[in-house]
Amino acid sequence: MSATKAPSAALTSFVVRSRFLPVYLALLLLIVVAAIWAPATLSGVALRAMAPYGAVLGIAALGQMLVIMTGGIDLSVPGTMSLAAVIMVGVGDGSNENIAIAVATAVVAAAAIGLVNGVLIGGFKLNALIVTLAVGLVVTGIVNRYASTFPVQSAVPTGLSDWTSNRVLGVSPVFWIGVALTLVLIVGLRYSALGRRFQAVGANPVASNVVGVRVNLNQIFVYVVAAVIYAIAGVALAGLLRNPGVSVGTRYLLGPIAAVVIGGAALTGGLASPMSTFVAALFLAGLSQMLRTMGLPTALQFVVFGLVIIGGMLVSGDRIIRVVEQVLRERRRGGSQTPPAADPEVTSP
Amino acid sequence: MQRIKITAVIAALLLLAAACGGGDDTTAPAGPTGSASESGGTGALSEFGESIDADPALIDKALGPVEPSDEASWNIILAAVARADQDVDQATIDKAMECWSNRECDTGTGGEIVMGYADGGGDTVNVWRAVSHMEAILQALTYDEIGTIVSTEADFNPDPAVHANDIRFLISRGVDFIVGYPDMGVAIADAIKEADDAGIPYVSFSAGWVGLPDQEGALVPGEDYLTVVGEDLCALGDSFAEVLNEGVGTGEAALLGGTPGNALSLGWQRCTVDALSDSVELVNPPKNDNTTTGDTSWYPPIIPDVYSGLLTTYPDIKGWAYEYADGMYIGLQTYEDLGIPVKNLTVALRTDEQNLFCDWAERNEPTYNIYYSAGGNFQSRVGVTAAMMSIAGAEIPPEIIVPHVMRQVTPDDCDPNRVNEAVSGTSLVPDPVLQAMFAA
Q1: What does the alpha-carbon distance between residue B13 and residue B339 come to, in Å, rounded to a whole number?
Q2: Could you give the residue ranges of the DSSP H alpha helices within A242-318?
């Protein structure tokens, strides 16, 4: 009995893991291509410079990943990140003494945005895409209004920008925050009851509801957590840019979604891997860096970047394994269509 | 003495000819092509309600020690600066703030003219835009004829339709003229043409050509829209090249620009490329004459990527040319990220935000030198004055050329008491107004 289960478990494990494999292959391919055409991209200093920005995208992508796991999507990321960034300027007021209160304000404000998203989506069952887009617009309006009350291109407190410029093991601490968050999510999703419950809701909300999991509450919670993660990304980005302006988050509307999908998750919800998502974000940041290093015209950069994302989506998720599965099935079916006389089981009375 | 008398008589005859409407109305002489102070007070534009008696100190503040441009352009610039000599009281500050903060305001003069201001950026996304907007408002408040100011801002929206719709909104609102910066260039040409067809003069400033003359789909200033106010872009590009040639000597240099293909960047980059000496190797030449290079979109999150992309391959870049000083300030962060010392560096810029200059002063690095030409916030004032003169019947040249001069940054260029470090030192917005705009 166990002899028949073991290969089945291994196959299941392989099938599950295979959906996250393409991003690592893509990263490998990127490294090979960069080594040939833009070797400078792979230099230590270049990687160190790219890492914090890749991590910011990765952090935002991790928040988006949690939402996508529930079958939702969050388009309020740019607004939330921008709000966090301008709060660091406005509340920070150029004083290092205000950094803590500014970070706390940014996190609380983001949580409030997430709560609104969550209640409208989880509670009122409104469409996630429309709700988060609308909430994002409202937040953008608030950001613009708020930003008009202080010098908009002013710098964040030097303590924050100095901290992001520091080196921990040779890399900006922003990168390590991204790594730490990834590890927290890996452990949390896999080993905590809350995490497993959350994954169950993502995989099958109806079944989860039947077994007593409060799906609505779970959905509300995930939008709040995701928004707090966006705020962390916004604060980090503000520190990296020093004087971030009000629209720093604009660039993060689709990037995190692309990272999640290339990282192996399906937009319909279900399984996702924090590690693959973070790696996918680094892949996208590295790709962008390589295209710029290669000196491609801006128009061509957009084209190549878009094509790579499409390609990544095509091979991500369980598409490849499905193709393999289909081929195997057809082979098996082909085998079963051989003349009945050849099959002793069929010919036996 | 005899020569002076003859000169005076000729000058008087020329003034008389101009007043009678012969030739270009605005080409009435502003005195000899000498300094600004020499040309002040002639009253050449008095029939259009303007004085060219501009305070030389203000001209020097806005432009630096420039040589005047052609007379037609220069007179309008003088007229604009003359109006900028404002001793604002609290009521004016309050009104200016009301107009700056709201889409529409009543100036309180009872004037019938409605001014439209269409910005592709916006007050909350960019300090330079915010200050330029205020310059235009303050200028409008000097005209009793202007009773209403309507402003739109597209906040750098990447969708050209948003920018075009702003223009169309102003047309439908019934404005009498529009001053603006067309970030989308030829992509909003149709809307600008519609304004012109509706009899609404459109004036772009900051060299905001609606497509450069040889660009496909470009509008023709003087025909399709009233005029474009700004530097001679090719001369600006030459000036940048001159700075790099001298500062870099032998070595690598890079050019940066704004939104891909925008007229401002394209205009100066073309000429910089041509004027760089053989000993200066341009590491990112544009692919052709119609494309820009080093596109940053003037958007902070992209700027580090662009610097990083260039510096990882060319860590020994010794010169940069860019029209955005604050962008250079952001780019210096990449130097720190990459561990490249900010040394042996020459930078040519078009704007003069204080952030960079104060950072330069703090670094105190003798081999790091910055040269800049004025950012030109006040050009929006020139746009307002040109439009009002046009409404008054003056013939406006299709291009109002704002002279420029490259100045080397010195410690005096960092004013730590500036209300906002991101505000250009050359802005003509009085400090009390800046205080109201930017102080929390």
Answers
A1: 66
A2: 255-262, 274-293, 298-315
pLDDT in tens, chain B (440 residues): 444 444 444 444 444 444 433 333 443 333 333 333 333 344 678 889 999 999 999 999 999 999 999 999 999 999 999 999 988 999 999 999 999 999 999 999 999 999 999 999 888 778 889 999 999 999 999 999 999 999 999 988 878 899 999 999 999 999 999 999 998 888 999 999 999 999 999 999 999 999 998 888 999 999 999 999 999 999 999 999 999 999 999 999 999 998 887 889 999 999 999 999 999 999 999 988 888 999 998 888 889 889 998 998 899 999 999 999 989 998 998 898 888 999 999 999 998 888 899 999 999 999 999 999 998 999 999 999 999 999 999 999 999 999 999 999 999 888 877 767 778 889 999 999 998 887 65
Contact flag B124-A144 (C-beta cutoff 8 Å): yes
Question: How many angstroms separate the CA of residue B399 from the nearest CA in chain A?
Answer: 30
CB contact under 8 A, A50 and B308: yes
Phi, psi of A337 (to 5 degrees): -90, 5
- Three-state DSSP at B297 gives coil
**Residue that the structure tokens 């009521």 belong to:** B91
Nearest to B127 among A152, A244, A297 (CB): A152
Q: Measured between beta carbons, which residues in chain B are less than 8 angstroms from residue A251?
A: 299, 301-302
Cβ contact, residue pair B420, A93, below 8 Å: no
Q: Which has the closest alpha carbon to A67: A117, A29, A124, A24?
A: A117
| Chain B interface test: which of A149, A153, A168 (most B C-beta within 10 Å) | A153
Closest Cβ–Cβ partner in A45, A53, A151 for B438: A151
Check: CB of residue A236 under 8 Å from CB of residue A172.
no
Beta bridge partners of B179: B117, B203
The model's pTM is 0.78
Residue contact B301–A149, C-beta within 8 A:
no
Contact residues, chain B, for A298 at CB < 8 Å? 260, 292, 295
Distance from CA of A316 to the nearest CA of B (A): 27
> How many inter-chain contacts (A to B, CB under 8 Å) are there?
133
For residue A215, give how far its alpha carbon lies from the nearest alpha carbon of chain B (Å).
37
What local confidence, expressed as pLDDT, does residue B15 receive? 42
Cβ atoms of B158 and B103 within 8 Å: the answer is: no
How far from A292 is each of A25, A161, A329, B80, B315, CA to CA, in Å?
A: 22, 25, 45, 42, 14
Do B287 and A151 count as a contact with CB atoms less than 8 A apart?
A: no
**B403 Cβ contact list (under 8 Å, min separation 6):** B63, B66, B67, B68, B69, B74, B231
Using an 8 Å Cβ cutoff, are B259 and B183 in contact? Answer: yes
- List % helix, strand, coil for chain B (3-state, nearest 5): 45, 15, 40
Mutation target for A interface from B305, B332, B419, B429: give the one with most A CBs within 10 A: B305
Task: List, run by run, the mean pLDDT of 10-residue segments along chain A (349 residues).
Answer: 54 71 89 91 87 96 95 95 95 94 98 98 94 96 83 82 91 96 95 86 84 88 97 96 85 92 85 94 92 81 83 72 77 63 35
Contact A38 B313 (CB under 8 A): yes
Residue identified by tokens 């406006």 is B396
Answer yes or no: do A48 and B337 touch at CB < 8 A: yes
Which residues have C-beta within 8 Å of that of residue B29, sequence separation ≥ 6? Answer: B11, B14, B15, B18, B42, B44, B71
How many whole angstroms separate alpha carbon A91 and alpha carbon A106? 9
Residue A204 to residue A310: CA distance in whole angstroms: 27
Closest CA–CA distance from residue B301 to any residue of chain A (Å): 6
